[in-house]
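2.7 Reproducibility. Because tokenized structures are sensitive to small changes in the input, we list the exact sequence used for DYW domain-containing protein, including any N-terminal residues retained from the expression construct. No trimming or masking was applied before prediction.
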Amino acid sequence: MAISANRPPNSLLFSDHCHFLRLLSNPTRRNYLNLHSGGFPNPHPLSSHDSQHFSALSPASAPASADPDAGIRRLCVRGDLEGALELLDSAEGRRLDDDAYVALLRLCEWKRAVDEGFRVYSHISSSSSITSLSTRLGNALLSMFVRFGDLLSAWSVFGKMVERDVFSWNVMIGGYAKSGFLDEALDLYHRMLWSGARPDLYTFPCVLRSCGGITDLIRGREVHVHVIRFGFSSEVDVLNALITMYAKCGYCATARNVFDGMPRRDCISWNAMIAGYFENENCAEGLELFLTMRNLSLEPDVMTMTSVISASGLLPDREFGKEIHGYAIRMNFLTDVSVHNSLIQMYTSLGDLEEAEKIFLRQESKDVVSWTAMISGYEKNGSPDKALEVFEQMGANNVVPDEVTFASVLSSCASLGRLDIGTKVHVLARNIGITPCTMVGNALLDMYSKSRCIDKALEVFRQMPEKDVVTWSSVISGLRINRRSFEALSFLRQMHVDVKPNSITFIAALSACAGVGALMCGKEIHAQALRSGLGYEGCLPNALLDLYVKCGRMEYAWTQFNILKEKDIVSWNIMLTGYAGKGRGDFAVSLFNQMIEASVHPDEVTMVGLLCACSRSGMVSQGWDYFDSMKRKYSITPNLKHYACMVDLLGRAGYLEQAYQFINEMPIEPDAAIWGALLNGCRIHHQVELGEYAAKHVFELDDRSVGYYVLLCNLYADSGRWDQLARVRKVMRERGLEMDPGCSWVEVKGVVHAFLSSDASHPQIQEIYAVLKGLYDRIKAAGFTLPEDQSIAGMEASKSDIFCGHSERLAVAFGLINTTPGMPIWVTKNLYMCQNCHSILKLISKIVRREITVRDTEQFHHFKDGSCSCRDEGYWGGSIKLGRYDSGHWLCIYDAFGPINDLSRAYASASHRLLSISNAIADRGVRPQQSASPDGMTYRSGYDGRRWRDSR
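Resulting structure tokens (single pass, no recycling of outputs):
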């Protein structure tokens, strides 16, 4: 027996005797029984037979009887529970007959008087009746406890019953099923069969609904056999339940066979089959069956119309939905509020918010579903601001929101970044008492995560009484987007204990692995997804591709990319972004050309990746060409991200004045990111005055992002302006802004290890410090000069490196200790790597003869034999580096692949904007200067008259 006594049963409303079970077995008939208001088919707690039996005692003028049994029965018939209980108390110690107890129990159940019901149960327990409960008294107790939602007490009574009839089993099975314990309900059904009890007409619908609820086709088919064996294969209610069960399990063909074989069908049969098709996204078959129903002159009911209208919202043909709307008007269905609600949902699903608004405004009677349909419609169609307006109107109309309302409103707050409103909504949900609902908890978790309040999100997570797969997926994704991927992986391990992950979970987990460079861990997660049958589902292949790219394994990524059966635009964009991060603009351009040849149309993200690749590789002319071709050739209107890429392209190349001019000529208002790109260019080329001007605009638009303060601090530090730097840091402290501590991750033998700046908590920290000291000594002994004197104990950073933290050195040392000699070491860092660490790691790679790769927030640095893949230029000075601007002279212009021999040829394909850049540079009076190029050659470059000239 698999019934868990420790699981808290949910609130349960259960009706009297078999009439309720019949209604419960047919979801389409629940409108006859108001479960939430406690309505009953028979408004009196006693049946008509019982009322007639006690009619002689019912007149109010009858004298008080000395018999407490008769008096209690009389008072119960009159509905006087208080008087009946007083009479019961006066008979303390005396056993009443079963009729009196049953009358009391049924009255308590009818009035939902929980405390009074337990008083009656206590009286029964104090007598000898509890040790030998009769079937009738036991059934009354079972019905009452199940109605109260107290399955533990019901189970206790069930075990004390001397004999159980089919009603006893039906009550228990229905109680567990209604409380959501579907497996336990099915176990009870099998125990019922083992006891020799014969199921009846009311047993099978409840059991079949339990099978459908957990999509257990095997047990559902077994119950189908029992239906035939016990002779109920012609009962309409049972066959309707069979149709629903097969549809819930995804077997519409079998459900249709049952439907076609029915000797007679009612409207519920048609509704069950039509709804089954719609639930399995077989809209065409469902609508065809609806038309067949109409051709047979069968009138649909409200449930039929709501199903058909809802399904019409899933069809690409909007005209059909309008035809159904017209049919509903002609058949006078619009008097029902549920039909109105379905129409609102249909039009919002079709994206026709204007028509949905008309229906909503014309609707005289609006319930919570009406308001929620409008709110969720706005939220899903990209109008979260209007969703919040409707929510405010909902409150003004004194309509209490439900869990679906709160979920949609919180999602709107997350989309708008309105943490203030989201917090107020959270308080409202708590006051209503709806926060324990899993759906609301998931929405709160998502809202706080996207609002960068991950600690508050974790608090919500810990307080949730029940967590489903969406909950776990949300917390893993939330930690990832808040740059706490290391914690996200620990939550993934905890999740496996209770919940089976789905494809969304695997995608979030792979993204977390990519965040800390945990390649082996990501491969394990992908293997688990394959074992679960989800490895090739949805976005998982692209998530694996993204993992390889962000871990710097472009060769693995290229292999994965080539084996993809279907390469969508996301696949191409991931690869483009990967080559951009590697500084391989040439590969990115080649891949983009392949993409065009494959007839894949680029989108906005594609162009961002392509422009970033050009920026990182110093491909100024190509970047201009692609920017110019966006609207002309690919019908893509540049947005703020594209303009930011262009400012970054110019800024890295040293064209700061031209970048500033570009910003002023933008057709749209620049945002903080665009001014931040200019500030970064000023940092690279030490242009303090223009950098301060850019910072002023940045902080006017966004004064909460720490990264911009860091850029300004680095600008001051690189220029030796320590007083200004101190003032910026003081402002940061006053505004409560804190820089994330430097953290680096290294994966060794499938386990990810994290190292914070000046970390002393790692069990191998002393060994790590000893290894670093030994490496520094070996570097000095080899004749190399360290960038600065290194403090092993504290890893103190110089003023120019205050935001680095040097945690990557700890991670590299740990990797050297715990990996086989000669094995590459891969480190991921959450901050920029300072120039001193860059120089140190180059020397370490030469001394230990290891390949070391560090991914920081800017790019990949692949150290090998004392050199870095960025060539010491692409990171701090831009891929096109102007050696120095001194007294009006530009010295040595060269790119990442060698000196530029002829700027006029290099930029021949540039747009008119690039020509204006050249003219602007000429206006500054650039004079030729001799300088040594990276390859040791000396050449002269400059401007003569109106033509670039260059000679060796």
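Residues 765-781 form the longest helix (17 residues).
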